[in-house]
Amino acid sequence: MTLITFVIPYFNEEQYLGATLESLAAQTDRRFSLILVDNKSTDRSAEIARQTAADFSDIPVTLMSEANAGKLFALRRGIDAVETPLLGTMDADTIYPPDYVAKTLALFASNPECSSVMAFDALGTAVAGSQWVQVQLWPNHCHTGGYAQNFRTAAIKSAGQYDPEIWPYVLEDHEIFHRVLEYGPTVYAKDHVCRTSDRRDDRTDVSWTIPERLLYKLLSQGAMDWFFHTFLARRFEARGLSNIRLREQHWQSGGANQSAE
Question: How far apart (Å, rounded) are the C-alpha atoms in residues 156 and 161?
Fold first, then answer.
């Protein structure tokens, strides 16, 4: 029985998508399905998705496309099609260990009141001690990204899921975390990890500033609506940090950005 669907939006990921899908093909728990959403790729990404999906003989794979450029639109299209009780978002440049699905499902099963289960980007088999301390200090804050967020489908859809009318900026994974948190607590586990690509090491041009990050940590869940939709939205708008900026792939073409369209 399929319990969870993973939505993977992708745009020009021919260098990474195949390895990501191979890591999912090696999962020990097979109770999952995949929705792959091509967001106007101009390289071989869609071809790789089709070829690799053919090898998932026991895993349902749905191939979709989204004509509106931007990760928010691709995520929304994929999530609208989810029918399983649980869903997860993944990134096309991330490697998931063989027990990723098993741990995700086990954490949901042992925490029936939770709305979400989060995993970490970690080099080893457990998150670094310093990051785990932050989780203990701020358990109701987001400590991971869209590459490893898992939700109860009813909760994320009730929260309005990804919607440019609600949040059209970067940090969509943090903003939606707090909307979903209204439907139940989140669960972290120190050994629930995956590994993103090294190209993410510098995202300062599409992220928040250190003062903004510090303020986020200091505020309670009750202040998050103001923090995101009044304070941070105004600042992100002034800096041009719309979500489509995530399509700027600086590692391509000798450092030149790929077109946002």
Answer: 5
